[in-house]
């Protein structure tokens, strides 16, 4: 069984073709700059890179190129799309409607469209990818996996905001979270490392990348998470501000004569690491500048680690303990100094890491200090594999 995993963005299509007999990745690729000059497809198969550079005016042409690359006689891995048994799509926001992956039908697409009001940058692009795949592969079953689905287990006191209740009733204003597929995957692997059933554990999963969130996973279910109604809430991120006093928003809007859309753009695309430093949204650039003595870069890194530390401490309290802390995603898997900074002074909670073991990037590693009461792991995430597994289960029914 071969499953094609699609992550459709506003101007890109990320994809993987996975052979589910052994869960091996046959091909991984990216179509980028759709509708923009310099559009291209890059596909890697067994270390060999295949590139197509041409105008890609829309997602339909982009998906046609994906199929062409996968079936290319010299550079592809299948002879026909008929070899694809199912397509799994990543969708950021499923709102209150979905707590698990589902087969695509008209009702599912309508709900994805409805949820676009709380994920306007993501859901429309995901829906576009679904529609194009249905057109190009009409006989192939389509499945959607929602980033928010894992967090539907949160209790009311965790997901509700203390706004007038009517706004929840009228507009579904509440915490939904994100990165759920990643949090679920690494929590399950952490439980295996602990030698316990995930239902018997309390785990804090730190998905730290350009977008970042931390989740309290209690008994295998999301108990609380740092992202909220949208991915803007929570940690300091690449270009997102994370937690701020809501009163700062109208104050700045009045002083700068900004529209709601302009203010939203500032908070989502001009803040975070980029906003503090004025250098970049990439932690590698920030770390380089910090080493050269740039005080704003040093501040941005301290803000990131400090807020992560606060969330970890609060989730230990919320769950009445913790068995393991997991670091994953780009910064979590590769940020040696950042992991050390976050875990520093958490020994009162029994969380300590071994600096020698922590000298690792991108592979599953136990970095726990010998005298730590809580296990600390680096676990590479694999959201595509989770999507592929869910897709296989549904198309095989």
Automatic annotation (TrEMBL):
For substrate, which residues are the binding ones? 90
Q: Which UniProt keywords apply?
A: ATP-binding, Cytoplasm, Kinase, Magnesium, Metal-binding, Nucleotide-binding, Transferase
Catalytic reaction(s) noted? acetate + ATP = acetyl phosphate + ADP
Could you say which residues bind ATP here?
14, 207-211, 282-284, 330-334
Q: Where exactly is the site Transition state stabilizer? A: 179, 240
For this protein, what is the EC number? 2.7.2.1
Q: Which SUPFAM superfamilies match?
A: Actin-like ATPase domain
Annotated signal sequence is none
Record flagged with keyword Kinase: yes
Can you tell me which residues bind Mg(2+)? 7, 383
Subcellular location per UniProt equals:
Cytoplasm
CDD domains associated with the record: ASKHA_NBD_AcK_PK
Entry's Gene Ontology molecular function annotations:
acetate kinase activity; ATP binding; magnesium ion binding
- Alphabetically, which GO biological process terms does the record hold? acetate metabolic process; acetyl-CoA biosynthetic process
Q: Coiled-coil intervals in this record?
A: none
Tell me the HAMAP family matching this sequence: Acetate_kinase
Q: What does this protein do?
A: Catalyzes the formation of acetyl phosphate from acetate and ATP. Can also catalyze the reverse reaction.
Please state which protein family the record places this protein in.
Belongs to the acetokinase family.
Subunit note? Homodimer.
The protein here is known as Acetate kinase
**Organism for this UniProt entry:** Halanaerobium salsuginis
* Gene this chain is encoded by: ackA
